[in-house]
């Protein structure tokens, strides 16, 4: 039997196979959901920013980390280098070197930057916490210091940051305003002040609240909802609700995530998932990784279903550099890529969810 001559399509496929050196990259799938399309390209089509927190040491030292960060994500957040202890290590002496390096990286790779974070109770400079503790910084002085920190930092990045986490974790686990130095010294008005000062320094940036355990409708997310409603009624520029999304597969998936996003949306606010990771007891196995993938999927899907959900950021994308094992003993494997940068089921699921047509 004489072999049939190759038709043009088959010949092209063969040529592509030879060029690429592997048959698996020649896909019969339509371009919109091809397995090699980066997350950011799929998210673009959904009008969503897909982001990652960036560890600046890894970015400097690890080429593979850099390559994937640039290829997959359209938004980056500084995991640590925009926090107060990093940007004002000595009183009155600002150091934005590391933060600027991230902004440059983002610019080169056409990525947007989330600012994290202006007011928090952690990672404050030692001079500040010591001064408050020994009374050398009184309430009037502390308010001035906070004003200057917000103004200097936000002005420094003016026009380069699209969303700022203005206040971080201001409610405690009982849904009461957290008993931080800010509340103790300044009273609850520090919250409105922080938003007003940030807005004055860069009117173009969208200003966010940000916290964990606020995924579903619960006492804590409701406390945020009530606060946001009240502040907005007073004309305070609170423009976004940041939902961190630190999940653990041993707990049930939080209820009513989409309803929660929608109620903030109904106030005219944006919403965002800002720090998503899904941890598990080690060692990981197939069942756990499948459950993890499903949690990621449900968060992404909820965000896609709500028009004003504008960004979805993972808190690091590889298990190689995750904060989880250092804080939760015996736990880890929380990210989309494993320690050697292989994609996990969670990655594939996020990709497929972003690629799906109907939302
Ligand atoms: O991932 C961050 C880790 O490297 C720091 O040591 C830690 C210090 O508190 O902060 C981590 O990031 C936190 C984020 O800024 C706010 N939400 C919780 C995150 C995980 O702790």
Automatic annotation (TrEMBL):
<feature type="signal peptide">
    <location>
        <begin position="1"/>
        <end position="28"/>
    </location>
</feature>
<dbReference type="Pfam" id="PF00331">
    <property type="entry name" value="Glyco_hydro_10"/>
</dbReference>
<dbReference type="InterPro" id="IPR044846">
    <property type="entry name" value="GH10"/>
</dbReference>
<comment type="similarity">
    <text>Belongs to the glycosyl hydrolase 10 (cellulase F) family.</text>
</comment>
<dbReference type="InterPro" id="IPR001000">
    <property type="entry name" value="GH10_dom"/>
</dbReference>
<feature type="domain" description="GH10">
    <location>
        <begin position="42"/>
        <end position="353"/>
    </location>
</feature>
<dbReference type="GO" id="GO:0045493">
    <property type="term" value="P:xylan catabolic process"/>
</dbReference>
<keyword id="KW-0624">Polysaccharide degradation</keyword>
<keyword id="KW-0326">Glycosidase</keyword>
<dbReference type="GO" id="GO:0031176">
    <property type="term" value="F:endo-1,4-beta-xylanase activity"/>
</dbReference>
<keyword id="KW-0858">Xylan degradation</keyword>
<protein>
    <recommendedName>
        <fullName>Beta-xylanase</fullName>
        <ecNumber>3.2.1.8</ecNumber>
    </recommendedName>
</protein>
<keyword id="KW-0119">Carbohydrate metabolism</keyword>
<keyword id="KW-0732">Signal</keyword>
<dbReference type="InterPro" id="IPR017853">
    <property type="entry name" value="GH"/>
</dbReference>
<keyword id="KW-0378">Hydrolase</keyword>
């Amino acid at each position: 039997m004489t072999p049939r001559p190759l038709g043009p399509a088959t010949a092209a496929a063969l040529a592509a196979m030879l060029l690429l050196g592997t048959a698996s990259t020649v896909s019969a799938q339509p371009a919109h959901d091809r397995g090699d399309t980066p997350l950011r390209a799929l998210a673009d089509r959904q009008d969503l920013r897909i982001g990652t927190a960036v560890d600046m040491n890894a970015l400097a030292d690890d080429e593979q980390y850099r390559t994937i960060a640039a290829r997959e994500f359209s938004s980056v957040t500084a995991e640590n280098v925009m926090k107060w202890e990093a940007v004002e290590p000595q009183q009155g002496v600002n150091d934005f070197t590391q933060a600027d390096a991230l902004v440059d990286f983002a610019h080169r790779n056409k990525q947007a930057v989330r600012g994290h974070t202006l007011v928090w109770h952690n990672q404050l400079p030692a001079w500040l916490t010591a001064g408050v503790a020994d009374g050398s910084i009184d309430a009037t002085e502390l308010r001035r210091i906070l004003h200057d920190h917000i103004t200097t930092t936000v002005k420094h990045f003016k026009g380069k940051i699209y969303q700022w986490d203005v206040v971080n974790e201001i409610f405690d686990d009982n849904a009461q305003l957290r008993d931080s130095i800010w509340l103790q010294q300044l009273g609850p008005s520090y919250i409105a002040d922080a938003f007003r000062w940030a807005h004055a320094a860069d009117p173009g940036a969208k200003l966010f609240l940000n916290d964990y355990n606020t995924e579903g409708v619960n006492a804590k997310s409701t406390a945020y909802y009530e606060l946001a409603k009240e502040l907005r009624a007073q004309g305070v520029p609170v423009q976004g609700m940041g939902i961190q999304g630190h999940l653990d597969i041993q707990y049930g998936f939080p209820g009513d995530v989409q309803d929660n996003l929608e109620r903030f949306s109904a106030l005219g606010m944006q919403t965002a998932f800002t720090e998503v990771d899904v941890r598990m007891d080690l060692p990981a196995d197939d069942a756990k990784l499948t459950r993890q993938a499903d949690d990621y999927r449900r968060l992404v899907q909820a965000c896609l279903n709500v028009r004003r959900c504008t960004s979805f950021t993972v808190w690091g994308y590889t298990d190689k550099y995750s904060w989880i094992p250092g804080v939760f003993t015996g736990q880890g494997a929380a990210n989309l890529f494993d320690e050697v940068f292989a994609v996990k089921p969670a990655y594939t699921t996020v990709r497929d969810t972003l690629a799906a047509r109907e939302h």
